[in-house]
Design goal:
- The complex is a heterodimer of chains A (213) and B (311).
- Chain A has 213 residues and is of the alpha+beta class.
- In chain A, 21% of the residues lie in helices and 35% in strands.
- In chain A, 34% of the residues are buried.
- Classes of the chains: A alpha+beta (213), B mainly alpha (311).
- At the A-B interface, helix 1, helix 2 and helix 4 of A face helix 1, helix 2, helix 4, helix 6 and helix 8 of B.
């Protein structure tokens, strides 16, 4: 009987799904450009998001743009596209998280810095103010959607100010997927009924340290 | 000698299955598979958008390209997560079902899933006037837990039936103890008594109803990718290409679920083959059904709860 149990377990497990959250539908290449003041404090960050082509097409169709499908937008169309991803609902953190030591820094609302459309991909840039950062200490930057519906990578790079050092640690995807499985099959499920948000585990870590001016 | 070789062959799928499991769990095979599938989905997604543009721009040749991409999307989608595999695999283990029939079930349920996406989007568009967000939310937040719930019910059903047959086999053994009564010359596991349900009868009597339930519980939750595609093509005025694409995505998904179906049947038959011909076969079969059902029920319930908690 034991062998049959094993057989069942094996097969049922091969057939097991992961969970919906381990499964992004939107892919975004992210670019980060931190801004420091004279004293070396982090005062803001410019964030570029380049959407995958399918999602870009969805957005254009939602807004009724690029009707000739030539992949080019008129000036009028560009202005209608502007800021399409910057009306954030309450509680949305903008999928960017910055820590200094233990403290999480508060990021302001997005300020539009332009939108472009090239090679079928929409790129949208916004700036966010940061208050309360202390000078001289390294910052940890991570771009991710906690629910992992959207997958962010650092495809557009980190553009650090002069005198800063950037260290990128790639996400340990092995660990990330293990985490998903453990969360999925943990018994009993979280009494609060919260499925742990796995997005963070899939995010690269950017460590930014700047010589204090 | 020949019998020994047959036995050895029957063990083969078991060994292959265990090897696969060891790779998946022990050596990070799952992560490799999932990374590969996610990367594949991303590539396909980009290419799909380009193909849609070309198609809309009047390039008829792009249609074939789009269909191929839809198939690839369905494949990658099913290779990563997706619960259809769980159900088909669990069922293939739990019930004695011919490979062809289970494979057809896998195929039809994937196509039915595509049909759900079509119905959801076009009902959303024409009847309810929903926004894209609303349609995607309906698929992800409402239909997903419902679908997992339905799968859990199928699991429970397997458990109950397995338990009943186990009970029947035990009662029979009590009533006519002694050898001879249950062993048949042909080595089949049929008990030959009308008051006990045979494997064959069980397979036949319930198969139609089973099929409907199986297909239904997979099909309830449409794939978000298909919903994206359908909304896009509707907006772009190439509805038919989108509908065809959704079904081709279903075929891509089926390429994975059918593989799982074949694997599960092969493994079950391989395992059963070891005891076939012995008086215990019916009991063992009922036991497998019960265990597989339990597994499906437990895992699906867990998934339903996780999906619900995301609301």
């Amino acid at each position: 009987m034991k062998r049959f149990l094993q057989t069942c377990a094996t097969l049922a497990c091969v057939a097991l799904p992961s969970v919906a959250t381990a499964h992004p539908h939107i892919f975004i290449e992210t670019g980060l450009k931190p801004v420091l003041d004279d004293t070396g404090r982090l005062i803001g960050i410019e964030v570029s998001w380049r959407y995958d082509e399918l999602y870009s097409l969805l957005v254009l169709e939602d807004k009724g743009l690029d009707h000739d499908y030539d992949g080019k937008l008129t000036e009028d169309e560009m202005s209608r596209l502007k800021g399409f991803d910057q009306n954030w609902v309450d509680g949305y953190a903008g999928d960017l998280f910055i820590h200094q030591g233990e403290a999480e820094l508060t990021l302001g609302p997005p300020e539009g810095r332009g939108t472009s459309f090239e090679d079928g991909k929409i790129t949208s840039i916004h700036y966010r103010r940061i208050e309360g950062a202390a000078p001289g200490h390294p910052w940890l930057l991570q771009a991710y959607d906690p629910t992992y519906y959207t997958a962010y990578d650092l495809g557009l790079g980190v553009d650090a100010p002069e005198g800063c050092e950037v260290k990128v640690t790639q996400a340990d995807l092995d660990r990330a997927y293990t985490l998903v499985e453990e969360a999925l099959y943990a018994t009993p499920a979280d009494p609060e009924g919260n499925f742990p948000e796995v997005g963070e585990a899939f995010a690269d870590k950017v460590e930014l340290s700047c010589v204090s001016g | 000698m020949r019998q020994r070789m047959t036995r050895g062959l029957m063990l083969l799928p078991l060994v292959l299955g265990l090897g696969l499991a060891i790779w998946l769990w022990g050596f990070g095979g799952f992560a490799t598979l999932e990374i590969w599938a996610a990367e594949g989905q991303r590539e396909v997604q980009n290419a799909m958008a380009r193909m849609l543009r070309r198609l809309r721009g009047g390039d008829a040749a792009a249609l074939a390209g789009l269909m191929w991409l839809c198939f690839a999307y369905g494949f990658f989608h099913a290779a990563a997560p997706g619960h259809g595999k769980l159900l088909i695999g669990g069922y293939g283990l739990g019930r004695r079902v011919p490979m062809l029939r289970l494979s057809s079930l896998a195929l039809v349920s994937s196509l039915a899933q595509a049909a759900t996406a079509v119905v959801l989007v076009y009902a959303g568009v024409f009847v309810f006037n929903w926004t894209r967000q609303r349609m995607v939310d309906t698929a992800d937040r409402l239909l997903e837990p419902v679908s997992y719930g339905a799968i859990a019910v199928v699991g429970l059903w397997l458990v109950i039936r397995g338990a009943r047959r186990l009970w029947a086999a035990w009662r029979e053994a009590q009533a006519h103890s002694g050898p001879g009564h249950h062993t048949h010359e042909d080595g089949s596991c049929s008990c030959g008594h009308k008051h006990g349900i045979t494997l064959d009868e069980a397979t036949h009597v319930h198969s139609l109803r089973d099929a409907a339930v199986l297909i239904g519980s997979v099909a309830i939750r449409p794939c978000t990718g298909a919903v994206f595609l359908l909304i896009l093509t509707w907006r772009m005025g190439i509805d038919l290409a989108g509908i065809a694409g959704a079904f081709v995505m279903g075929l891509g998904t089926a390429s994975v679920t059918v593989t799982v179906a074949v694997l599960s049947v092969t493994m079950r038959e391989g395992a059963l083959g070891q005891v076939m011909g012995g008086p215990g076969a019916a009991r063992v079969a009922a036991g497998i059904e019960l265990l597989a059902g339990l597994l499906v029920a437990v895992v699906a319930t867990q998934l339903a709860l996780s999906a619900l908690s995301l609301l």
